[in-house]
């Protein structure tokens, strides 16, 4: 009697699990893309825009990866939201997570051959896109720039490419809570640039480095990473610092993130005028305590370099998404660099969502007196809890049931398996890079 009941309960739980997993998503095979946006909101990494470099196609796909559950980069289960997307196919926009609820994707700029609003918002609570009305300064469209959000909900948009031809060095600030544009200072700002690296380093500072300038010659050029630039969000002013150590060669279109303890900036990939980087020349760390660059010790299988990708810090990983310059038969669209141990970073295929405690900083970075380490905490969705509890209960009864029957080998539950050909990808330098990489 009790045994019957147990078996029925186990079956019921298994069916619930199956239904839940099946209903959650239809499998989505993502196409390769570059110059997209990747925005982390709660435990979802939203991917929007970009261009497929094999077909030249920029699509309007909109999809996300749930990072509250483990996954293997060889077999990623994307969730397709394309049916609710209102943003035209575009490339090279900037995005952040902001808004009054701090759960809204803000998309600025980019380029499209369709009519496109300057700003779009996607409320992840209601799963709906909007075109917000924004007051304040008159702001133009730019592309190939980074959006950085601070704790007051202000989105900082430095430089970028204007009108497809000219790199800029002005600072647009979008107050995502009050929907108002402001302008930041350009005094002592870095020289005009696009496709630079940028990362939030503290409540006070954003760090900018490298990039590409259309000014330096007819074709333009990648910029040096010897000088780095802090924008002080509280005082609206710029500071320059000169770095030393193993300074990476000039580069643009790389990614930059802040390490887990707030003391290191990690850069990956990029391109130098005509040269793609070797795997050994693609990952560098800048120590913010002494402004010294070094090549970190790494383990795991080292991927080839790429550019026009995105990087987000999620849990203990630098999560690199898509990009150009890698072979999909060799490298995955998503790369994971475990950055939890400053002594040795590790390339891995397995994402473990468990929270990580960063190693405490030894001292505060010189330029950022107010820095406090902000570990990225991944919220675990209620759905996951339900699944885990179900598994636990199910497992318990399954165990009892098996014990009562014959000895059987234990099955370990595994995480879920699973047109615009003439569009100008970049108006600068692209002809040179085209001929070198047969881009497009
Ligand atoms: C995603 O959804 C859109 C709209 O429903 C559909 O047209 C498209 O084929 C889907 N993509 C994939 C790869 O399933
Ligand atoms: C917004 O949410 C993110 C996590 O999604 C958090 O890191 C950040 O501190 C929040 N910002 C504000 C202003 O609350
Ligand atoms: C943008 O560039 C085009 C030529 O490429 C030019 O005709 C137009 O005036 C420019 N617009 C602005 C606002 O500078």
UniProtKB/TrEMBL annotation:
<keyword id="KW-0677">Repeat</keyword>
<dbReference type="Pfam" id="PF24681">
    <property type="entry name" value="Kelch_KLHDC2_KLHL20_DRC7"/>
</dbReference>
<keyword id="KW-0812">Transmembrane</keyword>
<keyword id="KW-0472">Membrane</keyword>
<protein>
    <submittedName>
        <fullName>14088_t:CDS:1</fullName>
    </submittedName>
</protein>
<keyword id="KW-0732">Signal</keyword>
<keyword id="KW-1133">Transmembrane helix</keyword>
<keyword id="KW-0880">Kelch repeat</keyword>
<feature type="signal peptide">
    <location>
        <begin position="1"/>
        <end position="23"/>
    </location>
</feature>
<feature type="transmembrane region" description="Helical">
    <location>
        <begin position="374"/>
        <end position="399"/>
    </location>
</feature>
<dbReference type="InterPro" id="IPR015915">
    <property type="entry name" value="Kelch-typ_b-propeller"/>
</dbReference>
